[in-house]
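Workshop exercise sheet. Pairs work together: one partner reads the sequence aloud, the other fills in the structure field after running the prediction. Swap roles for the next sheet.
Pair: D.N. / O.F.
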Amino acid sequence: MKKFVQGEIAETELRELEIWRTSSELNHNIFSEITEDQDFKKNLISGCWESNSDEWGKVLAKIKPSVKLVKFSRNSLYLVASTAAAIILFLGISVGLWYGKMRQGGVYNKSGYSYIFSPKGQRTQVILPDRTKVWLNAESSLRYAADFNQQKREVYLEGEGFFEVTKNSSKPFLVNAREIKVKVYGTTFNLKAFPDDKYIETTLIEGKLSVIPTGNKKSSAREVFLNPNEKCIFEKTSKNVGIEGIENKESSQGNNVQVPSGLKDRSKPHIILVKNINPEAEMGWKEGKLLFKNETFGELAIKLERWYDMHIHFEDERIRNYRFTGVFDKETINQAMEALRISSQKSYQYEIIYRDIYLK
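Structure field:
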């Protein structure tokens, strides 16, 4: 908090602060009181709070949180947890959208950047100064300079974002996603670039855009132009850049993009341009729909953890390879897990304990 007030906070620390601030109403109120009250800020910077807890008492006295102690029996705990999961899912989406609209500029520091973070279990919408609309999926963040739209329109994305870009032929809209840069003038597209994912996926819905590899300075690295209903898949670990086009066809393997085995060879292309796709999954998540087609449980578990803010544990590793196709539209985690169990061709059991799910 002290680093934030002084404008000396690092980006990773800022993200941790946002997670703490959004984790409870009390934390949010504490954050607001300290950052908006000049006396609190002065004492925090001067170091008074490091040896004097009276300041915390003053903050809590102003906030006056109402706290109720409720005792649960062991038998009623599971019912309470399942009910809470449904409420949290609904409120997570609603509060995320409200927070994104209210904050608009996110959190500022003296480095001149605005930072918006969407925690697990939430989807957040923000409108940029040029009226571009951005939806952030769970565990995703967006950063842009305070002078955005004055000289240029450039943002930095980590995670997944859906963009409706306001058209401006004189100022292209640039999205930096680690090893690639997406360049548009006015269009609708989805960009998925989670740090732990092997691929960066750019899906064009309307208009036209280009994907530019930025991690390779060789002459072979060139712009890839997309038309509507096309997807560009970039393998982040490759060193050589080439382009290969494939048609997406319905098959027994489902509608997922099947990355050619040639990608494992570093001498072959690692940019795949997929044509004639169905962008339903890329468009559905911002409306609260989680779509999956012929995905392994291991792949689906990553999405479920982000979507519901849960932790999934595979006590039987064979379950990771079970495949599922379906859509969750406002289902609670209990309903989702039961639907997966019933639809599975192979038998397994699950147990939900607070925020952990055990598969066996």
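Discussion prompt: Residues 2-69 form one domain. What would you look at next?
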